[in-house]
Amino acid sequence: MNKLPIGIFDSGIGGLTVAKEIIRILPNESIIYLGDTARVPYGTRGKEVITKFSQELVNFLVQQRVKTLVIACNTISATCLSELRNISPVPIIDVITPTVEYAVLSSITKIGVIGTPATINSGVYEKLFAKFDKKIKVKTQACPMFVPLAEEGLINDKATELIAKNYLLGFKNIPSLILACTHYPILHKVIQKTVGPKTQIIDPAKPTAKALKDLLSQSNLLNDGKSITYKFYVTDETKRTAEIANLFFDNKFPGKLEKVVLD
Ligand code: DGL
Description:
Blueprint: E1 6-10, H1 16-25, E2 31-35, H2 47-63, E3 68-71, H3 74-87, E4 92-93, H4 96-105, E5 110-115, H5 117-122, H6 124-132, E6 137-142, H7 146-151, H8 158-167, E7 176-180, H9 188-195, E8 200-202, H10 205-218, E9 230-234, H11 239-248, E10 257-259
Helix pairs in contact: 1-10, 2-3, 4-6, 4-10, 8-9
This protein binds D-glutamic acid.
């Protein structure tokens, strides 16, 4: 069981920001990543479709035999976490709970949350913050254009700067800002420049990877690192997908993309 891989999934390649952090803090673990590049974005779709697509991703990874699953996607975590837990025989870590727990510990009073329309409209961040700490003020904004900009690798582009200025008008100097979409960390520089240097930007990858490490160690599921493998599956692939995936890994992609067909 300990030698089985960790399954990580996202609507596209944004979840690679989480995979990268997991590989960094759990170098002895094998990984299977699945990105639904044929159907990205999920964040502008409704609950029924997001749930159906996500269940297909879980079924695929469960068939590959994984010891645990990580939803490297805020949209899926916000929309259908309980539905996925219902069909999964292995534990599932989401990106939202560990991120909110981390932010609550950092004793802030006002926090910004930016994400896809599905994540922001779900109200999940407001609900979770209210559960942990009623005093924290949460200001949210949907930024639907950020996902195609990230998937296109337009990380230092004038168009990205203009769109960021438009979305983040009310976030100047906000004390903390959660990048509540796993695609957004690649746009980190533009976002930081737009909100100003005083804002602490929170990338869910770190708290999520830490929550996974805690779960594996508490359940005695850590691997010893012998003969580990990395597999990166996508549901559609072009030359550009591979280039952007490499960009998400700071040009050190630890494997190659393989195209798969979901049942
Ligand atoms: N990476 C996904 C997230 O964290 C969003 C991408 C999409 O819209 O499919 O929300």
